[in-house]
Amino acid sequence: MDSETGEPQGIEEQRDSDQPTKPPKSVPAWAAPSSSVPLPPPPPIAARTEPPGNVEYVRPPTGIELFRSPLRVARVLQFLLGAFTIISGIALASSLRQVSAISSVVDDPLSVGFTELVSARDRQAAMDLVQIIAYLVVGVVFILWTRRLYRNLQPIGATPLRFSEGWAVGAWLVPFLNLVRPKQILDDIWKASEPSHESVFGPSWRFGRVSPLLHWWWAAFLANVAIGIIGSSQDVLVESTIEDSLTAANWFAIQDAAVAVLGVVAFIVVGRTTDRQVARADQIRRISTQQPEPQDHQASRGARSLAVLAGIVATTFVGVVAASLVFESQDGTNDASTEIASSNPGAGVLLDDLTIGDCVDLPSDLEPSSDSAPPLLAMRQFGCDVGHHLEVIAIVQHPAEMAAEFPGELELASFGDAACIGEVGDYVGAPWPGTGLDVQAIRPIPEGWIIGDRRFICLASSMDGEAMTTTIKGSGGIIGPSQRTPWSLENGDCFNDPPSVEKILMTVVSCDVRHNYETFAVVDHPGLPADGYPGDDAMTEFVDQVCSEEFEARVDESARDQLDFGFYGSPFPGSWSSGHRSVSCVVWDVDFPQIIGTVLID
């Protein structure tokens, strides 16, 4: 018991032990001496940074160990973007060559051959396929790169995120939304990767600023999409008029240039965005471990990226120039058209612009229906009172549906011959066999057939190849009163060989004078109008049999031993469809070059 208070001394000690002893105010609570009650562990020491003019205390975020470096995927992506830019440059050279070829056709239809245009179109189609493959590859790697960077935002302290991690992939795949959401994803990556802000933990990262570089990149991307949509809506080459083809080719050239620019801008965006995030992660590691600031490698990485970019741009430029020279040498020029153009004053006219009644000449000496002739694009046009060799007598449409497969050259040739021979009577005013006209058809080619070309242009010319100086419309033909074609010989006609092998028309003479041939029979095939052409073998068998029978029946028996016989002007697929059925049987002397008098019995 205390002598002053009168209380037991043990009670005071017990009261003092019930109340915890308060440490001095100058001593932190966590530094108080141990007691019977456990104290909580001390909080971690806050990292201290002292930027000029400001002092911030930052609590390092947790989870930096989950950060995965995007450098490898970024370098792969930059390599692919460089290759894509070079490919786009070569495609631009191909597009410019196509524009040049079509422009030449617009200025002078005979200056460029159809083969050159088809070559330019096929080359451009191949380049488009290569670009599409490269675009898909770059797109997949770009999405993987975006996903890697977006998943790194939480480890570097950007929480909470505006979008889930799945949007880093899905943003590119949802129609219409992919015109906005990918840009928002890249904006968030850029803002959250700011290495100079050490306190952007939590939602404050959203108030960062986005570089104009990303805005330019996205503008280039959207412009590329718009140009691609407009260009794809245009017709190409033979799909419409040549002017429309030129418009489409110009749009494709603009698109190739825009894609090349997009590749360059994307290369820079990938490099700078990746370097920012890597620098941000390095800074957080330094703060967390209290290590001194490492040597800055961002500047050296940027310098290397610029050097690589300069190499890509230079390579693309060289590729455009070299590809242009190679494409020009491959296409060549239309030499036949140049030769005709120098020898004839007529202006060129595209086949698409030909109309019935036009008087024209071919740009080469090959027949337009010949399988060995190159496809025609244009012809040389004249007034019909000027010497010319061809006249457009009809334009016929094939009845096949738009989706029908290409029927083959032989079938189209048969259809064109029949259709055009059948049009002669309406245009000239007399049946084809006796007009002295050769009829040709410019028919669709496979490339045109696929896109719906079903047009046959019917051209008439002299069988002897002579120039015409007037229109043949309503003229009844160009044959003289004493002339015959192989398909218009009459029974009892005596005639001589044409003056040259190039001539077909025969001149009828009196049988009392010397002559080479005499027609001893004209027989019609018994086929009905609705019957199809029986075939070359069956026709040959028929004319051999009928001419042999008529030879025995009509030719004087005393002259048979010194005569031989054959036939002229038998039906063929084109003439058969127009109603022609007659066969002319003729005889000639086997020992002497000429015959005097008739050999007929009657």
Description of the molecule:
- With 602 residues, the protein is of the alpha+beta class.
- The protein folds into 3 domains: 69-331, no CATH class; 336-462, no CATH class; 483-589, no CATH class.
- The chain contains 13 helices and 14 strands.
- It has helices spanning 9-18, 71-107, 114-151, 167-170, 181-192, 212-232, 242-289, 298-331, 335-343, 409-428, 446-450, 536-554, 573-577; strands spanning 47-49, 56-58, 347-350, 359-361, 378-382, 390-397, 437-442, 455-462, 483-484, 494-495, 506-509, 517-524, 563-568, 582-589.
- The strands form 3 sheets. It has a 6-stranded antiparallel sheet with strand order 3-5-4-6-8-7, with helices on one face. A 6-stranded antiparallel sheet has the order 9-11-10-12-14-13, covered by helices on one side. The protein has a two-stranded antiparallel sheet with strand order 1-2.
- The longest helix has 48 residues, at 242-289.
- Residues 1-62, 235-239 and 333-345 have low confidence and may be disordered.
Topology:
Elements: H1 9-18, E1 47-49, E2 56-58, H2 71-107, H3 114-151, H4 167-170, H5 181-192, H6 212-232, H7 242-289, H8 298-331, H9 335-343, E3 347-350, E4 359-361, E5 378-382, E6 390-397, H10 409-428, E7 437-442, H11 446-450, E8 455-462, E9 483-484, E10 494-495, E11 506-509, E12 517-524, H12 536-554, E13 563-568, H13 573-577, E14 582-589
Antiparallel strand pairs: 1-2, 3-5, 4-5, 4-6, 6-8, 7-8, 9-11, 10-11, 10-12, 12-14, 13-14
Helix pairs in contact: 2-3, 2-7, 2-8, 6-7, 7-8
